[in-house]
Task: structure prediction
Amino acid sequence: MSHDSNSRLVYSTDGGQIKEQNAPQSSSPFPTDGVVRMRRETKGRKGAGVITIHGVPTDQQKAIATLLKKKCGTGGGLKEGVIEIQGDKRELIKAELEKAGFIVKLVGG
Result:
């Protein structure tokens, strides 16, 4: 390639910096400040609503998920540190989490 005054570089794979990620990204969009956050989600679930619960300490997640499923009489699960409870039982779930000693915030609509 000749370097004349009428040519200009459009794209090059030479040089540049690629920044490495130091900290792994969390799947949760919420901060880890000790507050448990609940929200109702229907996106990607064919219209079926679930309550997602973020911020429960890792060592208590399985026990809390089991307790909430029994209290609500519904299904649910634990995916990537987020507890999912089927149905819209926000008030019951909030009351149970507060009984267990958590500070609970309702997030979203």
The mean pLDDT is 81. The chain is about 20% helix and 25% strand. The helical segments are 61-72, 90-99. The first strand starts at residue 35 and ends at 41.
